[in-house]
Amino acid sequence: QVQLVESGGGLVQAGGSLRLSCAASGSIFSGSTMGWYRQAPGKQRELVASIAYGGRTNYADSVNGRFTISRDNAKNTVHLQMNNLTPEDTAVYYCNVHSVVREDWGQGTQVTVSS
Description:
Blueprint: E1 2-7, E2 10-13, E3 18-26, E4 33-39, E5 46-51, E6 57-59, E7 67-72, E8 77-82, E9 91-98, E10 103-105, E11 109-114
Parallel strand pairs: 2-11
Antiparallel strand pairs: 1-3, 3-8, 4-5, 4-9, 5-6, 7-8, 9-10, 9-11
């Protein structure tokens, strides 16, 4: 079983920054891809950013250049640095870890950006 614990969400003004963190514990498959998804009210969950075990990253067009994803393989943690936030970034952000054998989700952390 894999547990994902997220932290770092909150309320911030437009133009501000937040840093999300996710700590994974349990039976994590070596080589897993880690990432962040978000879901705004009335919208589908969407990929924000992902990072492969070797460090290759992928970003949604809407956050490219503003968000940076990073991971620490030794600690099984993944971080999302979010800069220049806009009200459109308001959503629940979910940590995700997936491999060829399983996929796990965190409980979600709320990010609210006021205008």
